[in-house]
Amino acid sequence: MANDREQLLHKFRNDQRVISVMAVDNPKQLPALTDGFDILLLIITNDLSLNNHTTNYIRDNQRIQERWHDPASVEQWIRHGIHRNIIHWLLKGEILLDQNTYLEGLRHRMLEFPVDLREHRLLVEFSLFLRKYLQSKEYILDEHLLDAYNNILEALHHWARIVIIEDGYHPEITVWRQIRAINPGVYKLYEELTTSKETIKQRVQLVLLACEFSVMSKMERCCEALIHILEESDRPLSGDELQMNPQLVEVKAELPLLLNKLVKKGLIKEVAIPMDEDITELELKYTPL
């Protein structure tokens, strides 16, 4: 195995464009993790022209995929939590080459899961949870039962990810196996929704009720990153100003809904600012309590 790794490394060792190289073997139970290839090579490069470059080839009867990414892209994926495979790669992969210990340091920071990153991920997951939860409520009222089921299942998935993040861990690809060990109560809800002999409507209503009482109580905790931005401002901020904030880019589409809910829950204040001298229109802006 060591000799195989050395052969893989040979082509990168003197390449000035390469910062680090990591190998991820194909886990037989999760072949999609490496797109079905025997080995995935994650190559961190300082050459922006190679960012998102992918090469597939066969070497010594092994199917290999190379994925080239620059550090900024990788760190953005970690912050956003949208590329779930990257978490597994970085935490479980074998570091073969590491200039200035870049990957080692990145892995260490991920394991630490610093507060600012955790709060950001909570905000993203909660915004997605809230949208799916409310959509399910609307569908159930209109008797669109399968749509209600699908949305509450997605909401429950985001709830599970919230619980995992709160516990100090990065959500893995196999979230339900992970949540079963961390919070059996949430896993039980998942079982009730997916395997119960009750009607679809009854199952959806059960989870909606649990969401209302359990997760909605997490709103303030999950929205701390947004509330902190309001607290740092010396004036009320409009929804448009908040949507342009680079720290909120991942929740841009959900911000109006989030702001509305935070106001109704009494967690932030909504103020009306005259938009013209005749005060014919008032712009809604937001400020902390």
From TrEMBL:
Highest taxon of the lineage: Bacteria
InterPro entries, sorted: NT_sf, NTF-like, YgxA-like_substrate-bd
Ranges in a coiled coil: none
Pfam families xref list: NTF-like (PF14540), YgxA-like_sub_bind (PF22339)
Domain Nucleotidyltransferase-like per the UniProt entry, residue ranges: 6-118
Chain ranges of the YgxA-like substrate binding domain: 120-218
Protein name (database record): Uncharacterized protein
Organism whose genome encodes this protein: Paenibacillus sp. SYP-B3998
